[in-house]
């Protein structure tokens, strides 16, 4: 799973600027992650941990820059009235359909981090998928694969 996430995140541009531009795809990605995590009204510690782990491991940023990216994405997510701003930024940078499908897989992994999925989270990802031009079939396949990954992780943890 981490290889999938790494491959996806490497498709996004990386900058060493002090500030993150509003149309930086990393900000859009973080904002969508927050939208998904906060959709059901409860952000679990496991969701937060999965999210921070993903961002920390995949972006080559100092701790200060990582915090700045998370703050920029969080602020952008709270200022947004819809998902279009973020999905349009990502569509410009993720010209390959496989990369957009991969994005959904990562969002599903965040949803399943706490072992639960809500109807509201389903709806948020459906809207994001629609705006990214990802088919319903691919969206459902990514959801099923994320659920299977969680089951595998839980099985491995119970062996230990």
Could you describe the 3D structure shown?
There is one protein chain. The chain is mainly alpha-helical. It has one domain: TerB-like (Orthogonal Bundle). It contains eight helices and no strands. It has helices at residues 2-10, 25-38, 45-58, 63-79, 84-93, 97-112, 119-132, 136-159. α6 (97-112) crosses α8 (136-159). The longest helix has 24 residues, at 136-159. The two termini are 19 Å apart. Residues 13-17 have low confidence and may be disordered. Residues 27-143 form the Co-chaperone DjlA N-terminal domain. It comes from Aliirhizobium smilacinae. This is Co-chaperone DjlA N-terminal domain-containing protein. InterPro entries: DjlA_N, TerB-like.
Looking at this protein, list some descriptive labels.
single chain, 160 residues, mainly alpha, TerB-like, globular
Low-confidence stretches: 13-17
How much helical structure, as a percent, in the residues?
A: over 70%
Mass-distribution shape: globular
| Beta-strand percent range | under 5%
Structural class by SSE content: mainly alpha
Number of helices: 8
- Count of separate structural domains: 1
Distance between the termini: 19 Å
CATH homologous superfamily - what is it? Answer: TerB-like
What are the secondary-structure elements, in order, as H or E?
A: HHHHHHHH
Number of strands: 0
The level-1 CATH class: Mainly Alpha
- Based on CA atoms alone, the radius of gyration comes out at 15 Å
Largest sheet: none
At the fold tier of CATH, the topology name is TerB-like
Q: What is the architecture at the second tier of CATH?
A: Orthogonal Bundle
The average pLDDT score comes to 86
């Amino acid at each position: 799973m981490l290889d999938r996430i790494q491959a996806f995140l490497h498709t996004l541009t990386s900058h060493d600027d002090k500030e993150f531009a509003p149309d930086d795809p990393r900000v859009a990605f973080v904002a969508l992650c927050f939208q998904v995590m906060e959709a059901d009204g409860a952000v679990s510690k496991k969701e937060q941990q999965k999210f921070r782990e993903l961002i920390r491991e995949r972006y080559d940023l100092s701790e200060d820059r990582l915090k700045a990216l998370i703050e920029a994405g969080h602020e952008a997510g709270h200022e947004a009235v819809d998902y279009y701003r973020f999905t349009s930024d990502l569509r410009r940078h993720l010209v390959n359909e496989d990369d957009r499908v991969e994005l959904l897989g990562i969002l599903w992994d965040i949803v399943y981090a706490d072992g639960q999925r809500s109807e509201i989270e389903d709806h948020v990802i459906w809207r994001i998928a629609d705006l990214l031009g990802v088919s319903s079939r691919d969206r459902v396949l990514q959801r099923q694969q994320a659920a299977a990954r969680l089951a595998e992780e839980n099985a491995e943890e119970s062996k230990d």
